[in-house]
Write a structure and sequence with these properties.
57% helix, 14% strand, globular, single chain, 134 residues
Length: 134
């Protein structure tokens, strides 16, 4: 049986940022998660790339994100029209940002947990299993 976990952008960002206080725990959690199948989507990709670009510059950001996307345990999840419609409902109902609502909606649909440091917002979504980074 394949186990899946959706890894939020903050985990990837902490793991790649040498001076982040959360770095080691993010690396440890990723080491535990990567033997399973990790799911990312375009929202996570854009948030990670945006932050990496700020931290490291364009070329290193591209290299780091490409490494994540092409990792053999990382699977890409497309964001479709149904995801967007569900996310708007979740965003309104739980007062969370639309990006988080897209991630939460996909995790609910797939019945997979979300590994995140943003526990406060994701825990608002009833039925969503949240794995706290710390």
């Amino acid at each position: 049986m394949v186990r899946l976990i959706l890894v939020d952008s903050n985990v990837w960002i902490f793991a790649a940022t040498e001076n982040a206080p959360e770095r080691q725990i993010a690396l440890d959690q990723l080491a535990l998660s990567l033997p399973t199948d990790v799911v990312v989507n375009g929202i996570i990709f854009s948030e990670v790339f945006h932050r990496f670009r700020q931290l490291f510059g364009v070329a290193p950001a591209r290299e780091k994100v490409t490494e994540i996307v092409h990792h053999p345990s990382v699977h890409w999840l497309d964001v479709g029209k149904a995801d967007a419609e569900e996310a708007m409902k979740l965003s309104e109902k739980h007062s969370i940002r639309i990006n988080d609502a897209i991630i939460a909606g996909q995790a609910l649909r797939l019945k997979v947990p979300v590994l995140t440091d943003n526990v406060r917002d994701f825990r608002r979504v009833k039925g969503l299993k949240v794995v706290p980074l710390r």
